[in-house]
Amino acid sequence: MKLQKPKGTQDILPQESAKWQYLEEFARKTFKKYNYAEIRTPIFEHYEVISRSVGDTTDIVTKEMYDFYDKGDRHITLRPEGTAPVVRSYVENKLFAPEVQKPVKLYYMGSMFRYERPQAGRLREFHQIGVECFGSEIQRQMQKRLLWRLNSSRKLELDR
To answer: Residues 68-77: pLDDT tens digits?
Structure first.
């Protein structure tokens, strides 16, 4: 057995980890300012959750998903993106119910997995930060501005 990480993954060592923590904290503060709440979904989902949301014939489903049958013969996949699990949770937990205040504004961050040929800047395990907003078209426009702000912010200065 080789004692090395699987192909297409990376170790985040303490020096780099500090930069990740800085970025994550910056994102959390930004999301809080816009009244987004954090949601954490499982790292794996039922295969159908992902295949229905992105389409059975997309490259993600046909070529890039890590999927397998577990010991209970359930078709499972490691999450390749964050939107489908958040939508599944929104529906399963009835966050659309009349008694839940709208809009429902959620953010997530975590590992995602795609079986791709590793190359510069693309790994099989990657980390994604994203937002979802349910219940208001105006809020969807704010969501786009929020992501733009996060992407274009010069406050991050990760190369310091």
So the answer is: 999 999 999 9
